[in-house]
Amino acid sequence: MRPVGAVDHAILEWLRKEMGDSLMSTVRTLPSIPVPPDSFEARRNQYYSTKILKEMLGDVPQDAMRLLGVTDKDLCIPILTYVFGEAQVGGTAAVVSLARLRQEHYGLAPDRPMLLERLRKESLHELGHTFGLFHCPSRDCVMHLSNTVMDVDIRGRDFCRGCQTVVASKTGAERRG
Ligand SMILES: [Zn+2]
Ligand SMILES: [Zn+2]
Description:
The protein is of the alpha/beta class. The strands form two sheets. The protein has a four-stranded mixed beta sheet with strand order 1-4-8-7, sandwiched between helices. Strands 2-3-5-6 form a four-stranded mixed beta sheet. The protein is built from five helices and eight strands; from the N terminus they run βαββαβββββααα.
């Protein structure tokens, strides 16, 4: 995991354990990198996630199977008003944002357990894309498409059987080298 800009350490540590358990892989937290200045979209007061991915790819540890960026910045891509994250499908890197997973973003009282659960789902979802998965028709699957934070809350917290098979084949195969 690669923090991009300042990110709450307790949140990172919680996520590291969750991802390790979910993917049955060793997950470690790397030193943070600054938010790339050229990713800032002043007109929108958001950060262009594709440029953050590009920056992350400039420094991938040799033994890293995947690289998950975590940021508190609000992310966007040109054609969408916001994204919870972005991933290279079948690639190395993904990034997730905490900004719109926080209840505060919607004028509500902070809810830490809810924030963590959403972050867990979004992180698994984006990592699922790096394992080559597309959106899954099953609502119970973490790979189901979510456009809003309500969609994130509704969908399942883990991969369905079919998606899990794909992830296991990738993590197992790549771990063997
Ligand atoms: Zn997706
Ligand atoms: Zn699925």
